[in-house]
Amino acid sequence: MIDELKKVLVEFKRFLFQGTVVGLASAVVIGVTFTAFISAITSELVTPLLGVAFDTEFKNLTFTWRENEFFYGRVIDASLTLLATLLVLFFLILKPSQAIAARRLAGETDDDASHLSEETRVLREIRDLLKAAPAAD
Question: For the whole model, what pTM was predicted?
Fold first, then answer.
């Protein structure tokens, strides 16, 4: 029973520390931080500047209907935050990723060895020689 539990725990640990799980966890943390950053910029900088331009404070824009108050200024603020987040994601993540994928499809690779260390060049040469050698049965 204890050996089986240890085996399960070892498998679970291996699963947790796979690149995909750790990468996903890192992406979530970065995403939350990034969203907070964009929200702060939008709420504390962009929206007040627009408020100055339109001579109003968006966060205080409301209307009342049947004794209920609706804060549509907050919706405007959230919409601006969403727009800013989407723009940053598009230009800083999606467009560069598409460019890299297009280069790969076009056959461009990172085979320019001028930026590689001597050790890496030698290891690549050994790898290529091993690939080209006939397999020993």
Answer: 0.53
